[in-house]
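Q: what does this look like with zinc ion bound?
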Amino acid sequence: MKWFSRVAAWLRAYGRGHNFTCDICGREVFGGERICAACRAALPVISLGCPVCGRRVGEPGVCAACKQRRPVADMVRSRFVHEGEARRLIWRFKRGEKYLARTLAEEMAPLLRAFPGADALVPVPMTARAKRRRGYDQALALAQELSEQSKIPLVCAVEKRRETAPQKSLTRREREKNLEGCFAVTDRKAVRGKRVVIVDDTYTTGATVDELAAVLRRAGAAAV
Ligand SMILES: [Zn+2]
Ligand SMILES: [Zn+2]
C-alpha cells in the first residue's frame, strides 16, 4: 500500500497549495482565490476610514471619536466592518476553523502598506489557559500568516499574565482597569527602537490595543 500513502501525501500537499472552494459559500473557485467574486462583493470592506483609528467614516477626515480621544497606538487599520459575512468569518475563525487564518491574512495584507518600514508584527497575546481552552491562538495564527506573506518578522515579545473579564459589559474606565498590567514585555531587546505592528482579529473599543501599545511604548518601541 506504499503507493497509496504516496498518493495521499501528494494530494494533501496539492490541497494545501490550491484552493478549490470559496471559504464563504463553498462554491467552486478557480485561480487559487479563497473567496469567490460574489462573496467578495458582499464583504463590508472599509474603503474610507479614519486616518487615525481606521474605522469607517462617511466623509474624509479624522472621526469624531478620535477628535475627542486619540488611540494610544499611532495608527490603526482594519480591513472590514464587523458585520455581515466579515463578522461570520471571524466567528468561524474563533470557533475552530483555524485554516481561515490564511484567508483573513490575505485580506489584511494590503493594510500593511499603511505601515511602511515596519520592523515587527506582534500578535495580541492570550493567556496559556485561554489558548488551551480554544486550541489555538488566533491572533498568533494571523500574525504568522501575515509575516509569511509580508516577510515582516513575527515577534512574540509580550505575554498576557492574567485572564481579564469579558470587555463587553464594561464602561471605558472599567475596561482600562480590567486590562491594567495584564500584558508584560518578555523580550525588551526585540521591541526597543522598533516600529511595531500589533495584530489582532477584531478591533472593537480599542482598549486592548491601547493597553498593549502603552506597554510596547514603555519598552521603547519607536512606533506602534
Ligand atoms: Zn463564495
Ligand atoms: Zn478615528
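The CA atoms of residues 93 and 100 lie 6 Å apart. Residues 50, 52-53, 55, 62-63, 65-66 surround zinc ion (ligand 2) (CB under 6 Å).
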